[in-house]
Amino acid sequence: MTRPLISSIDPGRLAFDIDGVVADTMSVFVRLAHERYGLTQLSKQDMLCYNLHDCLDLGKEIIDDLIVLTLDEEHTREIPPIPGAPEVLTELAAAAPLRFITARTEADAIREWIFSILPGVPRSRITVIASGSPESKLGFLHQLEIGYFVEDRLETCKHLKEAGIEPLLFEQPWNRDEPAPGCIRISDWMQLKECLLPLGANLG
Ligand SMILES: [Mg+2]
After folding, report:
1. Does residue 2 register a pLDDT over 80?
2. Residue 88: how many CB atoms within 10 A of its CB?
3. What is the mean pLDDT of residues 181-185?
4. Ligand 1 mean position to 5 CA, how many Å?
5. Region 161-184: what's the mean pLDDT?
6. How many whole angstroms from 20 Cα to the centroid of ligand 1?
7. What does each C-alpha distance from 56 to 136, 151, 160 come to in angstroms?
8. CA of 19 to the centre of ligand 1 (A)
9. How many angstroms does the Cα of residue 125 sit away from the middle of ligand 1?
10. Do 79 and 28 touch, CB atoms closer than 8 A?
11. How far is the CA of 77 from the centre of ligand 1 (A)?
């Protein structure tokens, strides 16, 4: 596999999306689909596009209900982190403050969740911004002078690329088969760590 040559990224110019990058949010969606609707065949591998209405053979009301449940405060607390994310972010925090920009409309629950998975990082080193929509992430990224953004939504990556911010596309079933011209693909947090922390031993 060819490794992208991005080892010169300044950690201070990097920011992260949360759902689908740090948070394994869709695993909660799948669990709720099993528990509430008996949809035991459903798995994350069925989520082949970002807009679930376009790729899941389920009624609109069911999908909408599951999305609302998944993102509510109670279920946000139950989201497992994506493997490796807490460890790499904790290491990274030694080099630079951590900045997260989510398209969620409310920051409080997901900010508490971020704090909970990063107990070793001082809260003053963590910023969580809820932009309210994918499109409005760009303005916040410019404000914070971010040059690189880790994101799982392909459309957002393309939008950022056009605006001069380097997107790092975090691979998920919903973006894996889509062409992503000009986007650097990241398969998991171990790869991200290799790219970002070539001197990781010195940061810990
Ligand atoms: Mg996301």
Report:
1. no
2. 20
3. 89
4. 23
5. 93
6. 4
7. 27, 22, 27
8. 4
9. 21
10. yes
11. 17
For residue 157, report the distance from its CA to the centre of ligand 1, in Å: 10
Q: What does the alpha-carbon distance between residue 190 and residue 84 come to, in Å, rounded to a whole number?
A: 7
Q: pLDDT digit string (tens) for 95-125?
A: 999 999 999 999 999 999 999 999 999 999 9
Residue 174 to residues 17, 76, 91, Cα–Cα distance (Å): 15, 20, 28
DSSP letter (8 states) at residue 178: S
Mean pLDDT of 180-188: 91
pLDDT in tens, 48-75: 999 999 999 999 999 999 999 999 999 9
CA distance 148 to 161: 10
Give pLDDT, residue 5: 46
DSSP string for residues in 121-170: S-GGGEEEEE-SSSTTHHHHHHHTT--EEEES-HHHHHHHHHTT-EEEEE
* Alpha-carbon gap, residue 168 to 160, rounded angstroms: 10
Which residues 6+ apart lie within 8 Å of 150 measured at CB?
Answer: 14, 15, 16, 17, 21, 167, 168, 170, 186, 192
